[in-house]
Amino acid sequence: MAITPWILFLILVIFLLSLDLGVFNRKTHVIGTSEALKWTLFWIGLALLFSVAIYFMYENHWWGIGRHDGADDDGITATTNYITGYLIEKALSLDNIAVIAMVFAAFRVPLEFQHRVLFWGILGALIFRGIMIGIGAVAIAQFSWVLWIFGAFLIFIAFKTTFAGDHDDSNPQDNVLLKVAKKFMPVTEKIEGMHFFLKIDGKWLMTPLFLALIVVESSDIVFAVDSIPAIFAITTDPFIVFTSNIFAILGLRSLYFVLASILEKFRFLKYAIGLILAYVGVKLLIPAAYALYNLAFDTQHVAFHLPNWSSLSVVAGSIFISIVASILYDKQSRKV
Questions:
Q1: CA distances to 23, 122, 126, 216, 244 from 119, in Å
Q2: What is the DSSP letter of 205?
Q3: Residue 83 to residues 8, 207, 236: CA-CA distances in angstroms?
Q4: What is the pTM of this model?
Q5: What's the rounded Cα separation, in Å, for the pair 114 and 99?
Q6: I need a surface site. Which of 150, 163, 220, 270 has the fewest CB within 10 A?
Q7: pLDDT in tens, 213-264
Q8: What is d(CA 302, CA 120) in angstroms, rounded to the nearest whole number?
Q9: Under 8 Å between Cβ of 275 and 318
Q10: 257, 152 in Cβ contact below 8 A?
């Protein structure tokens, strides 16, 4: 595939990030729920608007897109997979929000500085995820059985998420990267404004704000280990995987300020996430099962593939049902 769509998309992302930090959030302030909700709707609307661009790019094969190996070859397929991947990443990012809230509480990050930490954390996440997606795409292109490993891993994570998915017992101070960083540079006793580093008496020191950034960044990498294989279960097209993943991440900051204080009310959400991960895991293992069947019985390439719309239905339906069930449960609990 030509490099043009990649360059154009990266230019768009850089423009949006520059607009966010350089214009709308240039001054430090506490982001209220109303402002965060407006930004959340903006990012969701932009992601959906980009799905229209996805349709026309793949339907008309602009810049040769959709012609390369492993690509979605028509507009409907590409758009369906893009939206499904976006929803999966959004669902999995909700778990990440709970961890971020715990990190900010542990390091006592004031509300007015939280956006700065999230901005740079997400900027780093874009880079790391781009690298991970690139490695995953190359590995899948060279060794198709990597998808089977992804499938088994996702089923394991689904079980873990459903039955042991709480993070209440973890301590951000135990983060390995945090301990390594402290060995190389001392830390100031308190947060010093928006500074990540300070020079005191000729020596550079980290601030607790930078420590919070390290933990937020490392937690995103951990969650990417789940989410990226999950999206590869929907499509092996790297452009669809990358763009859906990035748009979901871009809206994570505003979504955090909307949901951080009420996320615990969605008590059934972890079961939806578990179901989604299990579904995509099984979806990846189905070709492996048929390959073994064909090998064992020497058949003529018997195969079965779940249709694209089924993935979108399972993902969207699971999220919707879990949210509605959580709201109804919460209302019923208040009456008791």
A1: 13, 5, 11, 11, 19
A2: E
A3: 20, 39, 14
A4: 0.85
A5: 14
A6: 163
A7: 998 888 888 888 878 888 888 888 989 999 999 999 888 888 888 887 677 7
A8: 49
A9: yes
A10: no
Closest by CA to 39, choosing from 61, 68, 19, is 19
List the Cα angle 333/278/78 in 5-degree steps.
110
Distance CA(46)–CA(267), nearest Å, equals 29
**Tokens of residue 222, six digits:** 């951990």
Helix (H) or strand (E) holding 243: helix 238-250
Torsion of CA 58, 64, 68, 74, to 10 degrees: 20
- Token pair in block for residue 133: 């997606």
The owner of tokens 């590995």 is: 139
Segment 121-178, tens digit of pLDDT: 888 888 888 888 889 888 888 887 788 888 888 888 888 878 765 545 567 777 788 8
List the one residue out of 232, 292, 260 whose CA is nearest residue 111.
260
- Geometric angle at alpha carbon 166, from 127 and 323, rounded to 5°: 85
The CA distance from 204 to 22, in Å, is 26
DSSP string, 136-204: HHHHHHH-TTHHHHHHHHHHHHHHHHHHH---TT--GGG-HHHHHHHHHS-B-SS--TT-SEEEETTEE
CB atoms within 10 A of CB 166: 11
Say how far apart CA 244 and CA 160 lie, in whole Å. Answer: 25
